[in-house]
Amino acid sequence: MGKPESPSSSEGEVITKEEAYNVTISDQRLLDLGYRPKFRREMSLFGVLGISFCSIGVLAGMSSALQTGLFSGGPLGLFWGWNICSFFMLLIAFSFAEICSAYPTMGGLYFWVCKMKPDVPILGFFTGWLYSMAMVFTGVANNLSVALYLSSMAEVGQGRSLTRLEIAAIAWAVNIFSGIVNTIGTKAIGHMSTLFVWWTLGGTVVLVTALLVKAPTMNSTDFVFTNVQNFTGWQSRGFVVLLGFLQAVYTLEGCETAAQVAEEAIRAEILAPLAVVGSIAGSWLIGLAYLLALLFAVQDIASVQSTTFAIPIAQLFYDAVGPRLSQMCLIVIMVSQVMAAITTFTASSRLFYALARDNAFPLKKQFMTLNRFQAPYWGVWTSVLIGCIISCAYIGSTIAFNAILSSAAISVMLSYLQPIMIRVFWPGSIQDFGPFRLGKWSWPVNFASFLFTIFVCVLFILPTAYPVDVLNMNYAIVAVGGLLVVITINWLWWGRHSFKGLVKTVMG
Questions:
Q1: Which of 106, 226, 273, 404 could bond 101 through an S-S bridge, CB–CB 3.0 to 4.6 Å?
Q2: Banded model confidence at residue 15, pLDDT cuts 50, 70, 90
């Protein structure tokens, strides 16, 4: 068995005996899993929690996807959908936390699948590639959302609409900015994620206060909890309300991102699972407060539906708080969106590193190289490059671009399905549990998570408008199907020869 190296810290810093002990414990756990520590452990609980909070980005996610629920089910669907989906996403978080505590290493979902089902390497390969692409696509979606918020601010403040080329150019700039921040390394990401927690709390207070104080008229509780809206064309009221659930699921994806920085956290076997669960619990409560303020303050849903602003929630703020305050509110959300975009590239670059370490990704030496800031910069700038290429699609066709991005949310849920499925059908797949353990509740939690994940995956590919035509068709299944075909070809052509499972960097 390898021995942990001396605890490392940033040049010129002094660490206490307690910190040194905790680092040694964490590094030994990593060695027990077969990997030599290469990253400095510079993240505290607040930093790791902030990573998952950043990835979820409850203010930005809810704001960007609000129209999905507002037009499909209205206030009733949004309120009950948020609470029901938050509950089941919390169950998924508990499931992941138990696995993460046992295996506190980067790679997250991919590593868990490989570790729990080593006899089926294709399952780990597909999970790793599908999830890494989902992270990159999610980052691209976040970057474009930043551009759309800036476009909406230009419309509110100057009455000027940005062209597709200008919006794409802003998305490229945010892509590159995300790459620069991630290149600076772990400490910068840790500071940013800590800031994000406070930004989310403070931003929620600002947004909720502005909406409740400045709205010309306040809606009744009957409207907020029972009103149903339907702009979809579907006649089934129940189906329309279910479609609105997608907004909540889309917003709450990302709790597992804490696992991607587990090798950079002190006592990751404790902090990472706490961050996974805490990020969902906190987002549930923060999102509920923000959602209720939006529903009580919305002036005219039809106005939001017919808006000319680049992002519909800008119209809601414009009607409720006026042009000046709406600019401030959009800035609060946009900054949150920027930090969420940065975090997704943090996750994708670490995942590329983990895949390369196990020969599941080409150019192993390059993708495992760290710069002086302890950043896997090859993975960072690969994410940036892919993001810039995909952003080009927005110039030519918003339908093609949206099809690519819609595949991100379902790809994340399909990636969730793999470790949960293993825990359901092979409950003895974890031999050595970590300090976070569900005990007798483990199988019921995993089974409920399994059913909900399947339900959401089906819901994500159903048509959201009727009658279905070329313009309103849900192309998610086409995009995901195409991605799975590419991964399958990659496996048959290269992966099955190169990837045999997890590759230890230290021998026991």
A1: 273
A2: low
Report pLDDT digits (tens) over 85-101.
Answer: 999 999 999 999 999 99
Among residues 250, 191, 247, the alpha carbon closest in space to that of 50 is found at: 191
With a cut of 80, say whether residue 350 has pLDDT above it. Answer: yes
Angle value at C-alpha 386, between 195 and 162, nearest 5 degrees: 75
Confidence (pLDDT) at 5: 47
Residue 196 CB neighbours (<10 A)? 26
Token reading at 19? 């910190």
Which candidate, 250, 278, 335, 249, places its Cα nearest to that of 48? 278
| Angle (deg, nearest 10), helices 398-425 and 245-252 | 80
* pTM for this prediction: 0.91
321 C-beta neighbours (distance < 10 Å), count: 22
| 3-class DSSP state of 72 | strand
CA terminus-to-terminus distance, the chain: 4
Q: State the burial class of residue 146 (Cβ atoms within 10 Å of its Cβ: 0-12, 13-18, 19+).
A: buried
Residue 6's pLDDT is what? 43
> 43 - beta bridge partners?
265
Question: Please, where are the H alpha helices in 215-312?
Answer: 221-226, 237-243, 245-252, 268-297, 301-305
Q: Which two tokens stand for residue 382?
A: 């690969």
DSSP character at residue 269: H
> How distant is the alpha carbon of residue 120 from its chain centre?
27
Q: What are the residues whose beta carbons fall under 8 Å from the beta carbon of 224, sequence distance 6 or more?
A: 75, 79, 292, 295, 296
Going 113 to 126 to 97 to 342, the CA torsion angle's sign is: positive
Q: How many CB atoms lie within 10 A of CB 59?
A: 27
Nearest to 97 by CA among 438, 347, 430, 351: 438
The average pLDDT across 196-215 equals 93
Which residue's structure tokens are 């452990």? 41
By the 8 A CB rule, do 85 and 446 touch? no
Give the model confidence (pLDDT) of 29-62 as tens digits. 788 787 787 777 777 777 788 888 888 989 999 9
Query: What DSSP designation does 349 have?
Result: H
d(CA 324, CA 345) in angstroms, rounded, equals: 33
- Note if the bond before 37 is cis, omega within 30 degrees: no
